[in-house]
């Protein structure tokens, strides 16, 4: 298979995803290297020089370029994929250095939610596919970064539901190929036809090929099918590790001497995964970079990174979602010291006014800053 020129943002993300999948998706499961890459791109932009260099090695791009890719993906999402990236922080409990970290406009930037709010964000951003945020939000949580990706697509024509529980494909419902790959040698490929612009590629290699190499080959095939220079298929004339060949002669109208008729069998499946990303490529560096925002008196910081992912492949289509999150918590205990305790009690037990004023959060609507949006007059005695 022609590897094509392995450069640019798509190639950088693919190289990272191969490493991520190899390290994180160790068995049956689902994950999103892109969801992880987006968070590393967000962190690299603010990292100190030594950490930035390490993150750039994982991202495959300079930090500034990775930030630009992140911003472009969020500003102009693929029609079949719903992306979101968020930064939630409690600035009052972090160092003043946080104020110097400006995230791209398309990144949701706001205060820390509670656990119910984080769960609601995950559900809303994934169309209900993931209902629980992968990190626990506690009173010690100070900073959280999160990404969400979700897709629901239908096959152009439903696949045949077979008596043995599998799904049957033919030339009218899917593309079938045998390709020679760098990573795993000859592989069989089945890709149902969709109208969404999102290809779902199933790749099978010889049973003796290690899992990591098959994953690499699947990324290689997907990149080839997405390239303007489509890969050249292997001519299949005899049985292989995942395909059989039979021949007969008949009379039919045709423009060539050999007519190929492909069919396939693929399983219907659904996978739900929870991944600890502490050792995923780049995450130790990223978490260490974020930990510096914790105030000295609350150190050492506790960090965590996790991903929740789900995917399902059926006769009618494909759906998948992933929520990736990294968080920083305070763990240090305050030093005991003599302090002045001043107790103040304020009573609003008489009629009083309440005004709701709009503030500029940097997420649009800057012209609203300072405008009183709601005003109320409250009389406690009125009940």
Order of helices and strands: HHHHEEHEEEEEEHEEHEEEE
Oligomer: single chain
- Summarize model confidence as the mean pLDDT: 87
Uncertain regions spanning at least 5 consecutive residues: 1-6
Q: Any idea what the shape is?
A: elongated
The total domain count is 3
Largest sheet: 6 strands, mixed
Distance between the termini: 77 Å
How much strand?
25-35%
The proportion of residues forming helix, as a percent range, comes to 10-25%
Number of helices: 7
CATH homologous superfamily label of the largest domain: Antithrombin, subunit I, domain 2
What value does the Rg take, in angstroms? Answer: 26 Å
> How many β-strands, per DSSP?
14
CATH architecture of the largest domain: 2-Layer Sandwich
What class, by secondary structure content? alpha+beta
CATH topology of the largest domain: Antithrombin, Chain I, domain 2
Spatial strand order of the main sheet? 2-1-3-12-11-10
What's the layout of helices and strands?
Blueprint: H1 8-24, H2 33-44, H3 49-59, H4 63-75, E1 82-89, E2 108-111, H5 115-125, E3 141-154, E4 160-161, E5 166-170, E6 174-181, E7 185-192, E8 202-204, H6 211-226, E9 263-267, E10 269-276, H7 283-291, E11 302-313, E12 317-329, E13 352-357, E14 372-378
Parallel strand pairs: 1-2
Antiparallel strand pairs: 1-3, 3-12, 4-5, 5-9, 6-7, 7-8, 10-11, 11-12, 13-14
Can you give me a brief rundown of this structure?
The chain has 383 residues and is α+β, with helices and mostly antiparallel strands. It has helices at residues 8-24, 33-44, 49-59, 63-75, 115-125, 211-226, 283-291; strands at residues 82-89, 108-111, 141-154, 160-161, 166-170, 174-181, 185-192, 202-204, 263-267, 269-276, 302-313, 317-329, 352-357, 372-378. It has 3 domains: 8-151 and 276-329, Antithrombin, Chain I, domain 2, CATH 3.30.497.10; 160-267, no CATH class; 352-382, no CATH class.
């Amino acid at each position: 298979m022609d590897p094509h020129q392995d450069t640019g943002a798509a190639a950088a993300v693919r190289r990272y995803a191969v490493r991520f999948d190899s390290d994180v998706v160790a068995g049956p499961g689902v994950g999103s290297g892109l969801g992880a890459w987006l968070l590393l791109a967000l962190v690299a932009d603010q990292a100190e020089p030594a950490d930035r260099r390490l993150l750039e090695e994982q991202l495959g791009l300079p930090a500034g370029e990775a930030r630009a890719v992140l911003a472009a993906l969020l500003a102009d999402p693929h029609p079949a994929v719903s992306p979101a990236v968020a930064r939630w922080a409690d600035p009052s409990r972090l160092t003043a250095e946080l104020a110097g970290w400006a995230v791209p406009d398309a990144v949701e930037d706001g205060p820390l939610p509670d656990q119910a709010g984080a769960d609601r964000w995950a559900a809303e951003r994934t169309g209900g596919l993931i209902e629980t945020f992968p990190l626990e939000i506690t009173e010690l949580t100070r900073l959280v970064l999160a990404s969400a990706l979700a897709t629901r697509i239908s096959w152009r024509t439903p696949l045949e539901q077979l008596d043995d529980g599998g799904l049957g494909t033919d030339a009218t419902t899917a593309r079938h190929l045998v390709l020679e790959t760098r990573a795993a040698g000859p592989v069989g490929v089945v890709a149902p036809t969709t109208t969404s612009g999102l290809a779902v590629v199933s790749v099978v290699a010889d049973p003796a090929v290690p899992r990591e190499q098959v994953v690499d080959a699947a990324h290689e095939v997907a990149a080839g099918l997405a390239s303007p220079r489509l890969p050249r298929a292997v001519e299949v004339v005899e049985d292989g590790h995942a395909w059989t060949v039979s021949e007969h002669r008949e009379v039919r109208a045709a423009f060539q001497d050999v007519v190929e008729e492909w069919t396939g069998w693929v399983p219907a499946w659904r996978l739900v995964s929870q991944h600890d990303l502490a050792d995923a490529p780049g995450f130790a560096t990223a978490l260490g970079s974020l930990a510096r925002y914790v105030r000295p008196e609350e150190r050492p910081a506790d960090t965590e990174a996790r991903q929740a992912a789900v995917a399902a492949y059926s006769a009618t289509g494909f759906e998948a979602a992933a929520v990736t999150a990294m968080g920083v918590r305070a763990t240090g205990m305050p030093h005991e010291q003599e302090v002045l305790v001043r107790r103040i009690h304020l009573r609003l037990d008489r009629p009083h006014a309440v005004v709701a004023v709009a503030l500029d959060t940097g997420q649009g609507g800057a012209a609203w800053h300072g405008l009183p949006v709601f005003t109320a007059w409250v009389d406690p005695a009125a009940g």
